[in-house]
Design goal:
It comes from Variovorax ginsengisoli. Keywords: Magnesium, Metal-binding, Transferase. Belongs to the FPP/GGPP synthase family. It is a single chain. The chain contains 18 helices and 2 strands. The chain is mostly helical. Strands 1-2 form a two-stranded antiparallel ribbon. α4 packs parallel to α10, α14 packs antiparallel against α15 and α17 packs antiparallel against α18. The protein is globular and about 60 Å long. The chain starts with 9 loop residues before the first helix and ends in a 5-residue tail after the last helix.
């Protein structure tokens, strides 16, 4: 996961400054809807929500709504819904992955235990579904219900793929487009729906979100072998320890010699990072790292291309900047 330091890119900062006031309103909605009579729910929720990060999914919804000229206030509520859904997935993910570090500090499950993390994740899902009713729009509910279901399917797919070194690029992309990119796609599609955009514009907005979310996750997987733990806020080699077959490893096995491929395969199957230094060297030497960055670049370009039919205004420029900034991401 990116650290707060990652927000210092001039492009990202300029884009997010456009919606700074809107994001403060979203924060107020989040704080109000986290108010509950059960102290542990509020404590765990606030712990993870306040941990930093880009708030990229709600930011995309706000930027796209601005690009399309939306004049109402429902985008604040829906941006908070999206953040609650995302936060619930993080809570559950960290339990499943037995993660101990996120954004440079202990995960919620490390601090509060697995039962609290799972149950508070459930609370956030249910609160999100309460809030989406406020939109009084069946299409909005359909988009969010479908997204939540597909995210859950992606989580199960990833679990099934653990320690499977035979996973190919198509199967890898299926997981990340379900698990990660789907909520990006839903965020930008929601903005189009509440703005009353045409079906063609709605699809373009959804394509932008899906492509951006895919690029974001591909680059995140690169950083597990090329990042700096002090900048990325997570332990390097976590994916390997968890037995995840990500694109850098898939490409390294395809490009490496038999001995190199066998080493990576054995590490994935055992969930063993003891040879991490050697595996990182193989990923670099085979050109797998650059090839993975190229794959992310292609997705970022697909996102940029999807914006061609949108009105020309500062918010649309901000969306363009976010896609371009992904190509420079190092944390």
């Amino acid at each position: 996961m990116p650290s707060p330091a990652a927000d210092t890119s001039p492009n990202a900062a300029a884009a997010l400054e456009l919606i700074a006031a809107d994001m403060r309103e979203v924060d107020r909605v989040i704080a109000r809807r986290l108010d509950t009579g059960v102290p542990l729910v509020s404590e765990v929720s606030k712990y993870i929500i306040s941990a930093g990060g880009k708030r990229l999914r709600p930011a995309l919804l706000l930027l796209m709504a601005g690009a399309l000229g939306y004049q109402g206030d429902q985008h604040f509520n829906l941006a908070a819904v999206v953040e609650f859904i995302h936060t619930a997935t993080l809570l559950h993910d960290d339990v499943v992955d037995e993660s101990t570090l996120r954004r440079g500090r202990p995960t919620a499950n490390e601090s509060f235990g697995n039962p609290a993390s799972v149950l508070v994740g459930d609370f956030l899902y249910s609160r999100a579904f309460q809030m989406m009713l406020d939109a009084n729009n069946v299409r909005v509910m359909d988009i969010l219900a479908e997204a939540t279901n597909i995210i859950a399917e992606g989580e199960v797919l990833q679990l099934m793929n653990m320690h499977d070194a035979s996973l190919d690029e198509a199967a890898y992309l299926r997981v990340i487009r379900s698990k990660t990119a789907k909520l990006f796609e839903a965020s930008t599609r929601l903005a189009a729906v509440i703005s009353g955009a045409s079906p063609a514009v709605e699809e373009a907005c959804a394509t932008y979100g899906q492509a951006l979310g895919t690029a974001f996750q591909v680059i995140d997987d690169v950083l597990d072998y090329a990042g700096d733990a002090s900048e990325t806020g997570k332990n390097l080699g976590d994916d390997l320890r968890e037995g995840k077959t990500t694109l850098p490893l898939i490409l390294a096995m395809q490009r490496g010699n038999p001995e190199q491929s066998a080493l990576i395969r054995a590490a994935i199957e055992a969930g063993d990072s003891a040879q991490l230094t050697q595996i990182v060297a193989i990923v670099r030497e085979t050109g797998a790292l650059e090839a993975t960055r190229d794959a992310a670049a292609a997705e970022a370009q697909r996102a940029i291309d999807a914006l061609s039919g949108l009105p020309s205004n500062p918010h649309a420029t901000g969306l363009l900047q976010l896609a371009a900034q992904l190509l420079e991401r190092r944390a």
